[in-house]
Predict the structure.
Amino acid sequence: QVQLVESGGGSVTAGDSLRLSCVASGDTFDTYTMGWFRSAPGEDQEDREFVAANSYSGGTIYYEDSVKGRFTMSRDSAKNMIYLQADNLKPEDTAVYYCAAVRITARLRWPSEYDYWGQGTQVTVSS
């Protein structure tokens, strides 16, 4: 059974950085599409905002426009880990951040395409 567990969230001040981590288990994830999404607490899964994703380890990483140049996604296949380095955080980045996985999809910006989700980690940025 595939499981995803996020960690690394917290409360920070604008301009600070956080590194979010997600450990995956239950399969080999080299060829999975892995993504990061975010949402306000209580929002439906299909309304989660795309943050970053890539189709396979070593492939192109795509970012939502508002985080380009500030957030960096990476993968460590040997450890089944994905990371989101979030720099120069802004109050509008405040959200619950989720990692997600699916075996294959061409629509990696769509939350409805993903089969597996973590429980989320809260990021709060104060001004």
